[in-house]
Amino acid sequence: MRWRRRPEADAETPAVALGSGIELRDVGHDYGDRTVLADVSLTLTERRVGVIGANGSGKSTFARLLNGLVVPTSGTVLVDGLDTRTQARAVRRRVGFVFQDPDAQIVHPTVAEDLAFGPHNQGVPAEEIERRVEEMLDRYGLAGHRDHPAHLLSGGQKQLLAIAGVLAMRPQRIVFDEPTTLLDLANTRRVARVIEELEQDVVVVTHHLDLLAGFDRVLVVEDGRVAADGAPGETVPWYVARMD
Amino acid sequence: MLSLYVPGHSVVHRAPAGVKLGLLAALGVGLFLTERPAVVGGALVVALAVGLGAARLPWRALAAQVRPVWLWLAVLFVFHLLVTDLRTGTVAVLRLLALLVAAAVVTATTRVTALVAVVEWLASPLRVFGVRPARIGLVIAMTLRFIPLVAERAARIREAQAARGADRLRWGMAVPLLVQVLRMAATVGEALDARGADDAPARRPRRRPAVAS
């Protein structure tokens, strides 16, 4: 497989470092008349942050705000000082996003081609793309599926491919939106190990509370607001008690 | 094309996709310029030799491509026996078989990426009209990717309907399928954004793209 280089695009992440971490200032978001997030102000600098909350609480919108997939209706989201409203592309180069349903994230017919898609868009040279594809295939046990159609992979393999596709873009942070919701126990544990071993800072939105063991910080989102924010040892039991 | 690629390192696999598609197009035109059974039959033998010999494809890979049209070829042959003559019928069937096998060899030895790159290159003159060839390539690749996925979703809806007593195929399944596909399309759009699809440059590339498989 050969990927043509897009010479106009920068291979490297923009060298802007006005701040560090992800900062939300008075952020609110509405879908029409419905407010899904309101008055959220916080800064995420920890390596591993979990986000939990009931269905419809605003978790997924919160996650999408962090890499500019959704821009806030009010307030500002800054990633390392970059405004997601005006510098969305630069933000998305820094913050990767893994979706709940890998089928919606995998856009190329075969495994290797899909892994190459992100770096290709970033203008990474063909040789480097090939190197990254090989690395990801090996790291996530997909080497035997290199030229296989993506739709024939198992659910767990698809989620690993989705994660590998994001990692091939070399983001500095990765946001996971319920990455284990559609997986069985074995694959949930496998994905949990993958997340645990990542070098990048991660924000994980999840209903699987076991996934958050060892996390530095957990936010509880309730009715569009951050209802609790702290160490998992405090926030998770608080959330569980609220659900009883 | 959805899953027809057979990995390999043969000279046919390594040949540039543009050359393979060009030869296939030339064969298609050439076969319709002759009425000689020996020439058409020879083309079929060459296509088989390239596929089974040079490309070392399993015969099942080629047979799988021919199997769905056997009936049509038989009907065409019988039609010619009734309307024209044996020679014309033989040429017509051998011609289609040769094209079918040759096309199967191309798709089995060429990655989708390489085929899409050829399409992008062919579409590159359209840049003067503001068309972005990379977008055309992405649309083709995504079509190939999502056809089986939509089929899978349709099968799930059929199962769900059958589970509730609707044994026959009903048009009513079109509505939930459309809703699911639209919902998925919204997420796919986000995924494309997240993966930098919109970073495609507006400027013309500086050199002719490589189109090898």
TrEMBL record, chain A:
GO terms for cellular component: ATP-binding cassette (ABC) transporter complex. CDD domains: ABC_cobalt_CbiO_domain1. Keywords: ATP-binding, Nucleotide-binding, Transport. It holds the Pfam family ABC_tran. InterPro entries: AAA+_ATPase (IPR003593), ABC_transporter-like_ATP-bd (IPR003439), ABC_transporter-like_CS (IPR017871), ABC_transpr_CbiO/EcfA_su (IPR015856), ECF_ABC_transporter_ATP-bd (IPR050095), P-loop_NTPase (IPR027417). Residues 22-243 form the ABC transporter domain. It comes from the Bacteria. SMART domains: AAA. GO terms for molecular function: ATP binding; ATP hydrolysis activity; ATPase-coupled transmembrane transporter activity. Belongs to the ABC transporter superfamily. This is ATP-binding cassette domain-containing protein. It comes from Blastococcus saxobsidens.
From TrEMBL, chain B:
It is found in: Membrane. It is a multi-pass membrane protein. InterPro entries: ABC/ECF_trnsptr_transmembrane. Keywords: Membrane, Transmembrane, Transmembrane helix. This is Energy-coupling factor transporter transmembrane protein EcfT. GO terms for cellular component: plasma membrane. Signal peptide: none annotated. The chain crosses the membrane at residues 12-33, 38-57, 69-86, 98-122, 134-151.
